[in-house]
Amino acid sequence: MEKESWWRIWQFHLEEYLKSPARAGFFICEYFRSIHNSLEIACGSSKDSIYLSKRGVFVVATDYEVRLIEYLKNRFSHSNLFYLAADAFKLPFRDDAFELVFHNGFFVLFNDNNDIYTLLKEQERVSRKYILFFVHNKLNLKLVNNFSKLAANDPLYNIRFFEPKEVIRIVKNSGIALRSVRILKFGGLFDFIFPICKMMPNLLYSFIIKIIPRLYQIQPWVKTERIACIIEVDK
């Protein structure tokens, strides 16, 4: 997708994304409790980076769209949050710079696995511990059909879907050095809790959002929105 088209899409959808729960941020806080610094690639609204920064994690949020990064930089400020326009194929960071490299929905933009292999190798280079990514779940036929209808009028929904076994195969064929690869469920049946959480006292809200990433794991794949892939790199 051309940069101009991508910028127009995000101008239209940005506020909607910023108002939605920072689900990936909640997931990271639950499954990566000892992380101190991280890199988000293709940050979009950067809502997850914003959340993590408030939770004490230093985050560099990147996107290749300069205008988006400048807008976010001027709008959001935190001592733990740094914005940078960057090309995911050639990241401007030293080797092993981050404990965690993550992105949500980035790989769904690539139909060629060779592009994903290249991106994973670059992410492996700058990560000294983990890579985490989320992609949309092909086993959820209702979601696939809904996106297909929406894509007729909005290119944001024209994406690639993946199956869990396919994700594992792509990771293993990428050639990155890994200790382990783990597939988890993300998004779906239990997302209905988030609007209710907003009406709860802060302590109860904090408890509930911690358990939602765990609740995802008991729902069937056909009701799951996305596939979460956790890679432990071999460094």
Layout of SSEs?
Blueprint lengths: L2 H17 L3 H9 L5 E4 L6 H8 L3 E6 L2 H10 L5 E5 L12 E7 L8 H14 E10 L4 H10 L13 H10 L4 E9 L6 H5 L4 H14 L10 E8 L2
Parallel strand pairs: 1-2, 1-4, 2-3, 4-5
Antiparallel strand pairs: 5-7, 6-7
Helix pairs in contact: 2-3, 2-9
Name a few traits of the molecule.
globular, alpha/beta, Rossmann fold, 41% helix, 235 residues, seven-stranded mixed beta sheet, single chain
Describe this structure as you would to a colleague.
- This protein has one domain: Rossmann fold (3-Layer(aba) Sandwich), CATH 3.40.50.150.
- It is built from 9 helices and 7 strands; from the N terminus they run H-H-E-H-E-H-E-E-H-E-H-H-E-H-H-E.
- It has helices at about 5-20, 25-30, 45-55, 65-75, 115-125, 140-150, 165-175, 195, 200-215; strands spanning about 35-40, 60-65, 80-85, 100-105, 125-135, 180-185, 225-235.
- Strand 1 (about 35-40), helix 3 (about 45-55) and strand 2 form a beta-alpha-beta unit.
- The chain is globular and about 45 Å long.
- The mean pLDDT is about 95.
